[in-house]
Structure prediction request, 325 residues.
Amino acid sequence: MKNIAILVPETAVAEGVTGPRYLFTTANQFLQAAGKEPLFNVKLVGTQKNIKVQDGVYSIATDVLLEETGQTDLVIVPPIFGDMKNSIMLNEASFPWITDQYKNGAEVASLCVGAFLLASAGLLNGKKCSTHWAYYNEFKERFPEVEIVDGGVITEENGIYSSGGANSFWNLLLYILEKYTDRDTAILASKYFAIDIDRESQAAFMMFTGQKDHNDEEVKKAQEYIEENYQDRINVEELAEMVAISRRSFERRFKQATDNTVIEYLQRVKVEAAKRSFESTRRNINEVMFDVGYSDTKAFRNVFKKITGLTPVEYRNKYNKDLAV
Prediction:
């Protein structure tokens, strides 16, 4: 029997609590239907008997309080809702319990921005983790000692699991289910819950909006120039001259401020423009390529796939149904 404790944090996203419980209790039914014993003992645990979640819209009743839980095999930390700083503060009382469970042999899984709670508890120091792509900058700023896996859907290291954004947590749950049972049970669950079992990247869903949450005005000026003129030929030397900084200093400051090299930033801006065009216009691949400043088909395809995880054709067909071929 695997004892699974699903933490119910203050301000939790409701589906991040109910989804894991639904999946593992349903897996028990699959196992019984196959003539096997149910494997999972699933409990909702928390600091109180009833906990307000999702900005107070819902209330979830816990099965046991943290101090009554005993040793578990897996702790699941759901995503939290709203302001991260406030949510972390509201859930500080659960951090010692999470770390004690891990030290005593439990595996721990954070779902989406539940990674903020794991990192705040100190369990991710020096480790890799996945979280929602929209929170990368805030996470990196708050937890510089943790390595974000860019675009990652599932990360596993030393008995600690984490998942990418939003519904990516279902992929992590299937991953754990397969590990605890077998491939056939995981496939059955993926079909039952209509989940793509082997999705490995959230890159195709990521929207690049430019990292301007910094105080380097010269770098911001260069960023704005890139975003307004991405279709033109732009080189690093010209940008450095424009903001009156030596090239070496400019490149260092740009990377420090945006967490991208100048070339990486330019590529991301071009690809973001291409994505929007593929989603909303009838332009073909070559037209979009030229529009965003590429003239080499192979180079455009390679950069686009590196950033999104899909080729330009695959992306267009996925997000513009009118043009799907």
